[in-house]
Amino acid sequence: MDYIVVTNNPLVQKSIDLSVEYCSTLDEVMFMTRDFIHLGYELITHPLSGSVKPVQCPYKSIVLKKDQNNIKRKMLDYQAVKIIESAIKKVEQFKKNHIFREYPKSVLIDYQTIDFTLLKSGLDSI
């Protein structure tokens, strides 16, 4: 079984020795993750992991597992669909109440590190 990381974090893209699907926005990460789940991939890490609110941290990395049996049988994990759909709604909700601002590069690097650390913790547990 193969693992894939869907991310918009440049630190993850260059630091992880797994297959990485790189997105440019948080929304794209969520939608691509949903698409992979609909293709039969298993959701391994929660899309809202960590204590940083969605949108407050502009980076997110999500691990999925490619299960050939699920993909061949076109099996859909309805619990995973429910989780990702709920996460998408939560991100939309936070976007409505969030004032967008440009972060300095040092703050962006801090947010990349937070996301990377959460990802590494998730990978260490599988």
Q: Could you characterize the architecture of this molecule?
A:
This protein is of the alpha+beta class and 126 residues long. The protein has one domain. The chain is 51% helix and 14% strand. It is built from 5 helices and 4 strands. Strands 2-1-4-3 form a 4-stranded mixed beta sheet, with helices on both faces. Helix 2 (26-38) runs antiparallel to helix 4 (78-96). It is globular.
What's the arrangement of secondary structure elements?
Elements: E1 2-7, H1 10-15, E2 19-22, H2 26-38, E3 42-43, E4 61-66, H3 68-73, H4 78-96, H5 105-124
Parallel strand pairs: 1-2
Antiparallel strand pairs: 1-4, 3-4
Helix pairs in contact: 2-4
Main β-sheet, spatial strand arrangement:
2-1-4-3
Number of helices: 5
Sheet with the most strands, sense and barrel status: 4 strands, mixed
Beta percentage is 5-15%
Structure class: alpha+beta
Shape: globular
Q: Report helical residue fraction.
A: 40-55%
